[in-house]
Design a protein that fits this description.
This protein has 13 helices and 7 strands. By secondary structure, it is α/β, with parallel strands linked by helices. The protein folds into 2 domains: about 100 residues, no CATH class; about 210 residues, Vaccinia Virus protein VP39 (Rossmann fold). The protein is globular. The N and C termini lie far apart (about 60 Å).
Length: about 325
């Protein structure tokens, strides 16, 4: 970006410094620490085994940042607008602005941060804490998720902490990319996030793809998909092929979570997801999404498992209200 110039002899006519270059490299280094502007991004080149090259790259972080700031549209808010120079902004605002700009530039976006147009539906802090503790005390080692979403973050964090394996299956390419990007920004592995295709009549996954991704036993299974666009799941989540394939994949699982049981067709199919329903305790949990009625999920906990031993204590600590029976007459959706 260009900037106005004035004669050195007339200091009163010189405009206030309002571009990254006018701040000086020392100023940039103070505002955007090198650990932020270089080390956290693979594109900065940090990580080589050669100490001299590391030192050279670290030392050039601020210089590269200035150059890229000058060439980027991200620098526009700092230039040529009244009240946007460093002196006008104040150090706190300037620090936040340059940190945002450097984050976008060095992560390769070169555009202003925008709020996402679609947010994860979420069950709230209490449930994610409950789920994290339940996984931890259950010592689950292989996790299967049908339908990537907000839960994928919690499962991926647990998988990294416990060195467990996570497989998350998604049919929608937009949600698939969103899940992978969310994990990447959180510093978590997205290798287990898999995009599967619908079968010919769009009644479930292609079975050969599902089987290839779900080989071997899982001790944790979360079922929140697949769904059609708009969340429709009638004839999909209760499809006989789906129930049979999930039953095989979930054979012997200690924890099975079935979301959206406020839909009658899903609640009716819960017992068909396991070979022997009498081996499992059934618990239900309600969480708000719509104002008119809550969503509900079902937890199937294998009797005499570590999860069953710790369930009551964890629910009490996290203040998660679980109840034993959901009457189908209470289900507001088909």
């Amino acid at each position: 970006m260009g900037c106005l110039k004035a004669s050195r002899g007339d200091e009163s006519k010189r405009p206030r410094a309002s571009t990254p270059n006018s701040l000086g490299l020392s100023r940039i280094r103070a505002i955007v620490p090198l650990s932020h502007s270089t080390c956290r991004f693979p594109r900065s080149g940090i990580g080589t085994q050669d100490p001299e090259k590391n030192q050279e790259r670290e030392g050039g972080g601020a210089e590269r940042l200035v150059g890229r700031l000058q060439r980027s549209e991200c620098a526009e808010p700092l230039v040529g607008r009244k009240g946007t120079g460093p002196e006008d902004m104040g150090m706190g605002k300037l620090r936040r602005t340059l940190s945002r700009v450097s984050w976008n530039i060095l992560s390769g976006t070169d555009s202003a941060v925008k709020a996402p147009s679609v947010f994860w539906a979420t069950t709230g802090f209490e449930f994610w804490t409950f789920l994290s503790l339940l996984l931890l005390h259950s010592n689950c080692s292989r996790l299967l998720e049908l339908g990537s979403g907000r839960s994928t973050l919690t499962l991926a964090e647990y998988a990294r902490f416990s060195r467990a394996e996570l497989i998350s299956l998604e049919t929608d390419e937009w949600w698939f990319r969103k899940a992978r990007e969310a994990l990447s920004h959180a510093g978590l592995s997205s290798n287990g996030i898999c995009l599967l295709h619908w079968n010919r009549d769009r009644s479930w996954y292609k079975v050969n793809q599902f089987r290839r991704r779900t080989r071997g036993p899982f001790d944790f299974v979360l079922i929140d998909g697949p769904n059609e666009v708009g969340g429709l799941s009638l004839g999909i989540r209760d499809n006989p092929i789906a129930l049979s394939e999930i039953r095989c994949a979930a054979q012997g699982a200690d924890i099975i979570i079935v979301d959206d049981v406020h839909r009658r067709h899903i609640l009716k199919s819960v017992d068909a997801l396991v070979s022997n329903p009498s081996q499992y305790q059934r618990w239900f949990y309600d969480y708000p999404i719509k104002e008119s009625y809550p969503n509900s999920l079902c937890l199937l906990i294998r009797r005499e498992s570590r999860a069953a031993d710790h369930l009551d204590e964890i629910a009490s600590i996290t203040r998660v209200h679980l109840y034993r029976d959901l009457n189908i007459d209470r289900c507001p959706e088909d």
